Amino acid sequence: MKHLFLAALATIGLISCQNGKNTAEKSAPNVIETTNYLNFGDSTFSVENPFTAAEVVKNMASDLDTVWAVVGGPITQVCTTKGCWMATAIDSNNNLFVDYDYEFLLPTNSQGQDMIMSGYAYWDSTSVAQLRHYAEDRGASEEEIAAITEPVGEVMFKAKGVKIVLPDAE
Length: 170
What we know:
Blueprint: H1 2-16, E1 37-41, H2 53-58, E2 66-78, E3 85-89, E4 95-99, E5 114-126, H3 128-137, H4 142-146, E6 152-165
Parallel strand pairs: 4-6
Antiparallel strand pairs: 1-6, 2-3, 2-5, 3-4, 5-6
């Protein structure tokens, strides 16, 4: 019995001397970074690895193509009247025009915010009247509007859902 007591005491002593983790040095908890979005339209699409507008336009092989894609980037222009269309940068000189068939409207003050959208890119021609209407919506001067005299053929995007990235609330 005496030997059993000494063996138990020795075992407890050895266990308490082990090099374990110091409780004062706790590891940092796993932090999962999440992004919050303001959703419009169909928001069930994945936001992982979106294409840029430039990548989508580059991959349009012909004017007969229609390409379904998830595209991310800054909102460079938005209809200031109703929020019924927006544009995102293809490059420093060109924008990809985006509309949503009045399925939803974006905030008219969303210019400059990052977004991710799901929909399809397609080739289309925009009439002079429509180009002038868009120029008026974005607040162009009368001279700029009058200078629009030719229709434009370009890649456009029909968004089925848009997620605007909300700034961190810190």
